[in-house]
Structure formats: C-alpha cells, structure tokens
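Re: the 86-residue chain
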Amino acid sequence: MKPNQKSLEAYITLEPYLNDLQSTVREAIKHIQPCTDNEIIDFLGINPSTVRPRRIELMRLGVIEVDGEKTQKNGRKATTWRIKKW
C-alpha cells in the first residue's frame, strides 16, 4: 500500500514541532515497539503521568498507532503501540 502523500507531507511537516518529551516518548516507542505504556515508562524511567499524556498526544497527532494487545506481568491486557507506518 502506498502512503497517502498528504499524510506523509503532514507528518514530515509536524516532526520538527514535537516538543522534547513527545520526541523522547516517540524515540522510545521506535526503539522498543511494539510496546505498552508500562514498557515505555520502564524504558525511560520517567513518571507515568508524564509519559501517558505524551503518548496520547502522539496518537492524536497520528505519529503512533495501536499495534495490538499484550498480557502484562499482572495478568491484565494492555494496548501495544508502534510508530505509524506510512
């Protein structure tokens, strides 16, 4: 499937405008994808109340997308995230 040219252009335009925390979370997801919020938090060693809002912002901006689900150590299911494929 070819990338949507307008979406790709929008992403390229958006990329330089991600703030430092958004970029940090994006790079963590890129490095460990697919990953849950808790895996991002553990990887970065940053407070969950900092990571989760940045992940939500990245999702709303279309930078990341749902990859699936994973069962965590506590037995609960969690959504996994990946960098959006263009």
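Helices lie at 5-14, 20-32, 37-44, 48-61.
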